[in-house]
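Page 42, continued from yesterday. The earlier attempt failed because a stray header line got pasted into the input along with the sequence. Redoing it now with the clean sequence only.
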Amino acid sequence: MEIWINPACSKCRSAISLLDAEGADYTVRRYLEDVPSEDEIREVLTRLGLEPWDITRVQEPAGRELGLSDWPRDEASRDRWVTALAEHPKLIQRPIITADDGTAVVGRTDEAVRDALSR
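This time it went through. Structure tokens are written below.
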């Protein structure tokens, strides 16, 4: 299990605390320092069953600067979104937990973190 975190994020800290309390075996990836490649983002999206715009923080300053709210959300624009996430990792919703069964969740709630633990 791997968890993508920003240590400054309270949701990330809560997820880590819950994983620790449950005795989970996991690896921390500080994705702002160890930026995921476009291929890694695509893999996580597949595991999540989501599209890139579903995990994009469009209201972040970089998102507003890029005008992400106005970008098309369709298959033809998918690569453009993935590239934006790779170039501006702060736009990635957090924390993302990759579960042992090959799936992933956005662990913004205790329920989502527990869901990842149960997989």
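Notes: Strands lie at 2-5, 27-30, 96-98, 104-106.
Reminder to self: strip header lines before submitting.
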